[in-house]
Design a protein that fits this description.
Bound molecules: flavin-adenine dinucleotide
Structural class: alpha+beta
Number of strands: 22
Helix content: 25-40%
Mean pLDDT: 95
CATH class of one domain: Alpha Beta
Distance between the termini: 23 Å
CATH architecture of one domain: 3-Layer(bba) Sandwich
Length: about 400
Amino acid sequence: MTYDYCVIGGGIVGLATAMQLLKERPGSSLALIEKEQELAVHQTGHNSGVIHAGVYYAPGSLKSTLCKKGAQATKEFCEANGIRFETCGKVLVATNAVELERLGALEQRARQNGLEVERLDAATLREREPNIVGKGGLFVPSTGIVDYRQVCHGMAQAIKAAGGEIWLGQTVKEIRESSRDVHVSSEGNSWTASKLVVCAGLQSDRIARLAGLEINHQIVPFRGEYFRLPPSKNRIVNHLIYPVPDPDLPFLGIHLTRMADGGVTVGPNAVLGFAREGYKKFSVDVRDVATYASFPGFWKTIRDNLSSGLTEMKNSLFKSAYLEQCRRYCPSLTLEDLQPCEAGIRAQAVMRDGTLVHDFLFQQTPRMLHVCNAPSPAATSAIPIGEMIAEKLLNA
Ligand SMILES: Cc1cc2nc3c(=O)[nH]c(=O)nc-3n(C[C@H](O)[C@H](O)[C@H](O)COP(=O)(O)OP(=O)(O)OC[C@H]3O[C@@H](n4cnc5c(N)ncnc54)[C@H](O)[C@@H]3O)c2cc1C
């Protein structure tokens, strides 16, 4: 089977890229290949469902620009395709003097990023969120919520309507690039394309190596564990409630998230995973662990983040420790309120020198483009990321 373009990965980045390629080159042939029987079952289908506004990112950075553009584009895509979303806003809550100071810096950053924000004193915070306590807050009205699985189904429909093919249940096992084309095979099928894009999330480093790329990073899985509040607590917050993040840590901290289905989740934490695609607690995949344990950068990361890593591990093992994190700003929560909810797993790229990659990472050859790291808020930013990838690929 011969195509103009082939895309590996049916998460939101692969789908947005395929959609954009067909928009840029109408009438061209495209095959999107996904190993699971359904789309969006890994990172995209296990996230917090937040349409981020772009508060945290350095002004002018790629992350900041793509997030702001992506939030707008996601909302427009949902409107055009009848997908429910809500612009419910979020409040960052400072619980002590250090966090108040950090909140001031975040307010400045948000304004530099062109966002409308409102500073709340303790009394106003209490008025807006009667179940939340803090020394102050920052209200970001443009943050929204959506079910990204539904967004992906909308994208799949657009791809099919533009003549693209979606192949499910096809695990890519072989990739060969020649001067004329790229050859991709699964167990039972093969595809030849003029250009290939790989958006394989948690497996992206393996696929890059499979394709013969020399890479300097390794994917390390970081679990994001959630709890769900009982339906009686669905109205406990009016907005999304976030702690003020520690600038030394790459994740945003456990937050209270109103979900598109009406429920409220608490989470996610960020704890080292022992399986890339094992969502159950204590899932272990020996091959996954052996792969990162034999990578020198992994041990450097562990040494550099030992204290926070151990705290996260403790919070993961002991529900009471997890609860304490949330009770700092939502004191009425009890252990019984924390009901089981499936975890998500982040594909975190770690460099050989132990640096955690916080930004997008791409690697390109004459006929292939590999997305090697697509961290949060890549679900929010997926549409402009797809535009950027299509441009890189078509102009190569
Ligand atoms: C816990 C958590 C919370 C998050 N919260 C948010 C949020 O609220 N807002 C936000 O904007 N972002 C959030 N993110 C980030 C966002 O979800 C991810 O950055 C984004 O989903 C990445 O999409 P992707 O398409 O790159 O990867 P994925 O969704 O993981 O898709 C990769 C796909 O490639 C397929 N694949 C892999 N190997 C092969 C192979 N050999 N052959 C064929 N197919 C293959 C996989 O099966 C998978 O479907 C969160 C992430 C996590 C984990």
